[in-house]
C-alpha cells in the first residue's frame, strides 16, 4: 500500500456526482442523486465560497500557522489523527504555539457526507469533536456496505455527538452547501498545490505526511 492516498485530477465526488440519502417518511429510506457541482462545473467562478469558514484551533496570533489537508475516508489521515495529531495538539495547539487549520479534501461521496455532518455540528469545538469520532470510527462507517448503510453509520455518529435527526437530514440534503464545499476544496487544493493526504502547509510551505519529530522541528524553526 502506498504511503499516501493520491488525489486524482478529477475527484470521484466531482466526476460522479453526490448521493444524498433522505428519509421522506415513516421508516423508509430513499436514495437520490445530485450533482454537487451542477452547471457550475463549467462556471466555477459563479460559486461564492466566502461562506465556508476554516475550522481552526490554537492561537490565531501565533507566529506559525499549520494547515492540515485531509479526507475523512483516507486511512493515513485516520492514522495521523490517532497518533501524531494528539502530540501536535498537546504540544503546539493547546499551548498556543501555533494556529491550526483543518481543511477537508473530497476523494469520494462518503468523504463529502462526513464533512457535511461534521460541519452540521456548528461550532468549531463541536466540529473537532465530531472529527475525532469520525476518524475513530472510520474503519466501521466507511466500510459499512452500500451508500445507505454508510450514511446510516454517519447518522449514528451524529447522534452520539448530540445532533438531532431533523438537523442531520437538513445538513445532508443541502445540495447548495455540497456544491460550495466542493468548489471551496478545489480552490484551496489548487492554491496550495495539494496532491495527497494528509498534507500540511506550514507558514506557506507545503509538506507531505511526515514523522511527528520532523514536523516539530519544522514548526520550531519557523517560530524562531
TrEMBL record:
Q: Gene3D superfamilies given for it?
A: Glutaredoxin
Q: Which domain of life is it from?
A: Bacteria
Q: What keywords are annotated for this sequence in UniProt?
A: Signal
Query: Which SUPFAM superfamilies does the UniProt record give?
Result: Thioredoxin-like
InterPro entries (UniProt xref):
Thioredoxin-like_fold, Thioredoxin-like_sf
Q: Where is the Thioredoxin-like fold domain?
A: 54-221
Pfam families to which the protein is assigned, alphabetical: Thioredoxin_4 (PF13462)
Is Nucleus tagged as a keyword? no
This chain belongs to which protein, by name? DsbA family protein
Organism lineage string: Bacteria, Pseudomonadati, Pseudomonadota, Alphaproteobacteria, Rhodobacterales
Amino acid at each position: 500500500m502506498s504511503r499516501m492516498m493520491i488525489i486524482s485530477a478529477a475527484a470521484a465526488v466531482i466526476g460522479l456526482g453526490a448521493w444524498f440519502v433522505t428519509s421522506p417518511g415513516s421508516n423508509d429510506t430513499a436514495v437520490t442523486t445530485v450533482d454537487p457541482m451542477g452547471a457550475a462545473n463549467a462556471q466555477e467562478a459563479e460559486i461564492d465560497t466566502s461562506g465556508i469558514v476554516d475550522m481552526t484551533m490554537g492561537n490565531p496570533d501565533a507566529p506559525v500557522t499549520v494547515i492540515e489537508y485531509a479526507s475523512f475516508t483516507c486511512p493515513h489521515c485516520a492514522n495521523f489523527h490517532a497518533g501524531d495529531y494528539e502530540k501536535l495538539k498537546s504540544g503546539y495547539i493547546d499551548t498556543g504555539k501555533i494556529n491550526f487549520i483543518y481543511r477537508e479534501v473530497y476523494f469520494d461521496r462518503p468523504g463529502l457526507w462526513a464533512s457535511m455532518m461534521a460541519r452540521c455540528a456548528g461550532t468549531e469545538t463541536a466540529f473537532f469533536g465530531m472529527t475525532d469520532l469520525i476518524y475513530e470510527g472510520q474503519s466501521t462507517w466507511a466500510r459499512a456496505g452500500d451508500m445507505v448503510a454508510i450514511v446510516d453509520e454517519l447518522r449514528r455518529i451524529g447522534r452520539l455527538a448530540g445532533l438531532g435527526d431533523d438537523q442531520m437530514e437538513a445538513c445532508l440534503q443541502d445540495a447548495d452547501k455540497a456544491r460550495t464545499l466542493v468548489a471551496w476544496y478545489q480552490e484551496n487544493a489548487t492554491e496550495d498545490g495539494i496532491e495527497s493526504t494528509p498534507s500540511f502547509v506550514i507558514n506557506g510551505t507545503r509538506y507531505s505526511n511526515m514523522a511527528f519529530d520532523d514536523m516539530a522541528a519544522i514548526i520550531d524553526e519557523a517560530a524562531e
